[in-house]
Specification:
- The strands form 3 sheets. Strands 1, 2, 3, 4, 5, 6, 7, 8, 9 and 10 form a 10-stranded antiparallel beta sheet that branches.
- The chain has 17 helices and 18 strands.
- It binds CIS-heme D hydroxychlorin gamma-spirolactone 17R, 18S.
- CIS-heme D hydroxychlorin gamma-spirolactone 17R, 18S binds next to strand 2, strand 3, strand 4 and helix 9.
- It is an enzyme of class 1 (oxidoreductase).
- Belongs to the catalase family. HPII subfamily.
- Keywords: Heme, Hydrogen peroxide, Iron, Metal-binding, Oxidoreductase, Peroxidase.
Amino acid sequence: MQRERDAKDRQLDAHRVPADRLNMTTDQGVRVDDTDNALRAGTRGPTIMEDFHFREKITRFDHERIPERVVHARGAGAYGIFQLYEPLGDLTSAAFLTDTSAPTPTFVRFSTVAGSRGSADTVRDVRGFATKFYTAQGNFDIVANNFPVFFIQDGIKFPDFVHAVKPEPHNEIPQAQSAHDTFWDFVQLQPESLHMVMWLMSDRAIPRSFRMMQGFGVHTFRLVNASGQGTFVKWHWRPALGTYSLEWDEVLRIQGNDPDYNRRDLWEAIERGAHPEYELCVQLVPEPREHDFDFDLLDATKIIPEELVPLRPIGKMTLNRNPQNFFAETEQVAFHTANIVPGIDFTNDPLLQARNFSYLDTQLLRLAGPNFPQIPINRPVNEVRNDQRDGFHQHLIHESLTSYAPNSISGGCPAAMDGYRHYQEKVEGTKIRMRSPSFEDHYSQATLFWNSMAEWEKQHIVAAFLFELGHVERKPIKEGVVRHLGQIHPDLASQVAEGLGLPAPALAQVHANASPALSMTNQPRSIATRKIAILMGDGTDSLAVTPLRQALESQGAVCEVIAPHEGVVGDIPVDKQLSAANSVTYDAVVAADGKALGSLGRAQFFVKEAFRHHKPIAAVGSGRQLVEAAQLPNDVGVLFGNHIAQEFAEAVAVHRFWDRDVSSVPA
Ligand code: HDE
């Protein structure tokens, strides 16, 4: 089906270079006749400086790298469209939030935070979820994360926090991990980080897919309507496929098997036409209700529980197109919290205020100068007109004879009028370096998070603390963290203390409130886009496996046939040979052969490992022999028989059988 092309897509045409231009030229357009041999004096003689093609080629190569982002260095991008459900004119004057007639083009970049550009995707980390809306009134960015809170309350602490989580300064170890002394030292001394640390220790930090995670603007922003009336707003992205995560042991193995796991997943889904969808929701707080909560709306370490202020869906984003060139688009895209349009404004959240400075500043370095908004991916779809000129890499030829305002020579153009108006917030105060007392409580919402978790989520959080603190060398740092856990919840503190061989800390009286929306149980269930490995061999009964496969694929699942060799088994084409495949990159396993595979250790391990990671397993035909050979300790989430298509599809939709006891399976 032909996709309708949006304004951004059409704008990029002017910058696209088709792949079919055959004649090679230099950057100056001179045809090249040989790019394999440098010019030399005699066939065995020295290379000659005069070879301008050689010099240009090498020089360009030497300069191919730009600084990676200081945080969020590793990312993957995609284009999309945002369709508003209904006009929101009572809340905001932003055109893209009042006009439902045409969708707004978007570009999204998902990222990890701590690791460098070449690090693995599936690390324990926050994920970035930055979206640029190319609106008719200019670019609007929601630079979000997949957690709704942040580690610090004041942006002045950001360099400290980032230095603590990044590899240690003396030996640059460890890469893309928080499991080391400097990170936990920061945490124990800066308890405002604890709520976010609870999220980081939860499975939210290891998402199954960028397509299956939420996004949060974190700060409270402001919507402003045409009469100048403001409403506080929090931005939420909600994935249509639900929020799902991987399991810690699994992610460690994925890092080796497929370091590009999340990036590949996004790319392949879009290529297949399984376009990821996210609903944009808002939490709205009328200005008079600003002080109705027992936390401060300006404190980015706090959520507004959904039970207090429900989410209102306002539109849907569909990611429908992969970039054509990673560097030109995904690497050069520049997001900024201060890229806002009329009808949207900031609040005094000190973290947001710092971000409003930081993003432009970092991009001036990363993208080499002030003209980076002219890079195609960063250009708004409407016209840019101002008196800003010059600087590195100016691409435009301004014909105007003036670059100042006011002027009479150019008839006063361009003129500032009918533009962005800042919300008229009354501000008064004494200059002071101090936080508001309303920012003081660092524990209540960490407790709320713990209380809201299902039993399996709690177990994973405890295990994560033990893994992380198990990598900390200095005992006083571990003790410091455990002391704080004693303020969050006695169950959490005592289990972590016991695992670390430390005495239980003083335990606080904690509240029992919960916010069910924080748990990852009760997600929308679907098998669409789930990857299912079908293990086949020459003993596969295709009559048994084909109906199962068809049933799964008709519901949108992606099946891959894995066999001891490439080619075909019977008449079924093989997608991957067993030695190139690993269970950790699949959501579920179908054993469809036991005659050839039953005695193969690698096939047994495939099944056993999937079992260890709580995945659904089906055995059809002689596949029963393989599953029996794997000697699984129980059959929770394991289905046998030739007529199990629907039952198995439901099992795949469950995602994981967390109540399966895997404690005796060798990891
Ligand atoms: Fe960022 N952050 N950040 N951040 N952030 C950057 O900007 C910064 C924060 C987020 O895909 C940098 O262009 C400060 C919260 C995303 O290109 C930099 C503070 C949230 C991305 C920067 C924060 C984010 C960035 C690095 C505390 C979630 C990737 C490169 C005051 C709401 C965007 C760049 C992309 C990137 C600064 C905190 C999200 C250095 C100073 C909170 C998704 O400017």
